[in-house]
Design brief:
about 45% helix, Rossmann fold
Length: about 240
């Protein structure tokens, strides 16, 4: 496929893997990042080594003004942008009893509000055949309370995925991908994944390439919209 894909939060972790994986499949990359400039520049260099172009777009997605200007900036440099991947998110541990207004607001600003308004602005510019993919979490199928605001924000983003797919059809397709045990949280090591993997049907952690392949499936199948694809080794089955 020809065209450019905008990936938010693409300097590190799954976002970076998506940028590099999609570049290998022929996509040019519009790479959004916030604070991770060095990692973003490194990822951009790897994309270029794969023979694709990569433009960098710094923005704080908790700032409504930065969200409003991101899509116009991207289309000014990448007029053939055809895909938006809403990957950027925050993931802070706190049960309901410890959830502050600030923690709640930050999760919903970055994990819900930014994807919603980026999607709105993208859909207004991308033309026929545009696509949006929202990165969710396998935990949306569970009552997962240790990360209360995070879990609630991802459930809200899943609902938005289905609502947007209905409203934007047939011009723009909207789908979601739910990664499972792919990367450990910040501060945790491989033993974290190995311990939790014993509880899921696959019996092992996944890899970032599993998420890349899930996204590629959604991009390539033009008869799929409003779907939420679990790349989680069966974790959502409980």
């Amino acid at each position: 496929m020809a065209g450019t894909v905008l990936i938010t939060g693409a300097a590190r972790r799954i976002g970076r893997a998506l940028a590099l994986g999609l570049a290998r499949h022929g996509w040019d990359i519009a790479l959004h990042y916030h604070r991770s400039r060095q990692e973003a520049e490194s990822a951009a260099e790897q994309v270029r080594q794969a023979g694709r172009t990569c433009e960098l777009f710094p923005a704080d997605l908790s700032d409504p003004q930065a969200v409003r200007t991101l899509i116009p900036r991207v289309f000014e440099k990448c007029p053939h942008c055809r895909v938006l991947i809403n990957n950027a998110s925050i993931f802070k541990r706190a049960p309901l009893s410890e959830t502050t207004e600030d923690l709640f607001d930050r999760h919903f600003a970055i994990n819900v509000r930014a994807p919603l308004f980026l999607s709105k602005d993208f859909a207004a510019r991308c033309g026929e055949g545009g696509q949006i993919v929202n990165l969710l979490d396998a935990k949306i199928e569970r009552t997962f309370t240790p990360y209360f605001a995070y879990a609630l924000s991802k459930k809200a983003l899943a609902a938005f995925t289905e609502l947007a797919a209905r409203e934007l059809a047939p011009r723009v397709r909207v789908n979601g991908v739910c990664p499972g045990l792919i990367l450990p949280p910040e501060g945790e090591g491989p033993e974290y994944l190995a311990r939790l993997a014993k509880k899921i049907p696959a019996g092992r952690p996944g890899a970032v390439d599993d998420v890349v392949r899930a996204v590629l499936f959604l991009l390539e199948n033009e008869f799929v919209t409003g779907q939420i694809l679990f790349a989680d080794g069966g974790e959502h089955l409980g």
